Amino acid sequence: MLLTISTTHRPATDLGYLLHKNPENVHEAKLAFGSTHMFYPEASDERCTFALLLDIDPIGLVRRRQKHADRTLEHYVNDRPYAASSFLSVAMARTLRTALSGKSNERPELAETAIPLTATITPLPCRGSATLVDELFAPLGYDVTVETTQLDAHFPDWGESPYVHLTLKATCRLKDLLNHIYVLVPVLDRRKHYYVSRDELEKLLAKGEGWLANHPAKELIAKRYLKYRGSLAAEAMARLVAEEDIADALDDAPKDAIEEALEQPLRLHDMRLDRVAEVLKEA
Fold first, then answer.
1. What is the pLDDT of residues 141-171, one digit of tens each?
2. What is the residue extent of each domain of the chain?
3. How far is Cα 277 from Cα 283, in angstroms, rounded to an integer?
């Protein structure tokens, strides 16, 4: 699977400072399920493109699941080595951790600046409605292009393949683009390769900070990202709604009330966000 990110911001090679990957070098990293290869197919002042190629070891995946020996064939015959999925998100977290956080020692101002970016992901599974990709990315301000292919050119009656080539274009911060991809690729795939625990809830809220609470499909995103774990999805929604209420209240509340509310100690696990929202609304 391949993820590319391009910019025409000048000098375009400053993208390397934001990704913490030198355009002059090839970068590799070993992961438990395979390896990543990161390189720049083009790097000039006018345009720079970063590519992350994820090479999954299907044999290694089966060997790590020896306890499922009765389903060995299923583990060999699947799309995990080829399609963008939660494996891509894990690879991004391991190799682009600082870029995901939006930190750059060499270009701190640029890290907080919206620049023209184009991202492509291929092949990307889209399990669900044909408009799901647009429903997830368009509300975030992206110009979305989805290229589909037939499942089999020799059998047109079989219809279109569930795998697409996705192109996203927007003028935004790099960290926003990366966090959107990190969250929404597993949502589109809907087949996480690992057990979903409370840690995943915290990851969702952390990576969704600033955008997920206002997303019109936040409930669908929470359910699919958390593999339909009802209790976790319900808690995610409660905390997202509380965050949205606070944002609305901040828009209307007097400055003194805002400062007073923000000075109160917050404990997310105690659901104190609801109380802050109430204080601001009363003001």
1. 999 999 988 888 888 888 888 889 999 999 9
2. 1-194, 199-283
3. 10
